[in-house]
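Structure first, sequence second, as always.
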């Protein structure tokens, strides 16, 4: 009798939502599955800012170890948390259809202060990308570190004397926790692969790879590949203020926007490119090369030195 496919996941509510989504799709395709919750290092240390932990794959490496040791057959991640260079012998099984991409501000009272040039708001986020883009627009504001799963961060916002906190829309909406007092930050460019869920497998596990392949959403996989290629070519990680978003237009064109920003928001380089879907695979690297020619490496190094 064939053993059920063991799906590894972090224990947070959002991670479990993502794992259940993969499980439901696999079950619908006729596979028997079981969830295996595993606590990650990123979930254990909720105090140290991510950029100080200094480990790539902080939310993924525990699951990677479980996958490589044979404790699980598939690991489910938020794709934006996955290092651009995956561990040896681990491959992408499927990238699911993308959810909401944008960041949102969850605020207290109202947001009239966003129109007041002399108002000093207190805003919470531990993302260097969000901090940099926020300071570029509101250089007078004070930024505060905010760690933990979405439930913990919402409670922390309620407890602290802050004006608001920045979240990924997908994270709150998927588990039904987006408050009414929130607005989309349409001017904030997202992290590469934000809003996408990935299932990874061992390279030599043909059965799990085949099972996952039916879940793959080709447009999302291509767009997130382009975004992550952009990040990889700039040699950035989750602690570098690098943003990217690619999407397919109605006439089958990939439109790409990318930027690299200094940690304080004072220096920014941006790029926008288009290409037919059939010719877009290397669009991220092409965009990164444009920014590198304009001095992007110096801005990336500023971020590293700031850490």
């Amino acid at each position: 009798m064939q053993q059920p496919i063991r799906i590894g996941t972090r224990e947070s509510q959002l991670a479990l939502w993502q794992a259940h989504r993969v499980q439901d799709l696999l079950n619908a395709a006729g596979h028997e599955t079981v969830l295996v919750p595993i606590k990650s290092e990123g979930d254990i240390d909720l105090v140290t800012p991510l950029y100080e932990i200094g480990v790539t794959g902080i939310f993924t490496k525990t699951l990677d170890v479980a996958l490589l040791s044979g404790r699980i057959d598939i690991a489910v991640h938020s794709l934006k948390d996955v290092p651009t260079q995956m561990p040896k012998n681990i491959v992408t099984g499927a990238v699911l259809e993308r959810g909401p991409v944008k960041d949102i501000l969850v605020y207290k009272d109202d947001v009239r202060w966003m129109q007041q040039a002399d108002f000093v708001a207190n805003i919470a986020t531990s993302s260097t990308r969000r901090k940099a883009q926020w300071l570029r627009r509101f250089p007078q504001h004070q930024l505060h570190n905010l760690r933990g799963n979405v439930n913990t961060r919402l409670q922390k916002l309620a407890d602290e004397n802050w004006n608001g906190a920045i979240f990924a829309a997908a994270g709150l909406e998927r588990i039904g926790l987006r408050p009414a007092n929130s607005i989309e930050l349409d001017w904030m460019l997202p992290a590469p692969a934000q809003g996408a869920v990935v299932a990874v497998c061992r390279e030599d596990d043909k059965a799990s790879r085949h099972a996952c392949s039916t879940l793959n959403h080709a447009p999302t996989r291509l767009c997130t590949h382009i975004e992550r290629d952009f990040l990889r070519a700039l040699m950035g990680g989750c602690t570098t203020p690098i943003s990217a978003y690619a999407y397919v237009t109605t006439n089958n064109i990939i439109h790409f926007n990318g930027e690299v920003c200094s940690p304080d928001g004072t220096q920014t380089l941006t790029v926008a490119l288009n290409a037919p879907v059939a010719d877009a695979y290397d669009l991220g690297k092409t965009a990164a090369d444009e920014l590198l020619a304009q001095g992007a490496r110096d801005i990336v190094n500023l971020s590293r030195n700031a850490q």
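Margin note: The chain has three domains: 5-96+196-216, 103-184, 228-306.
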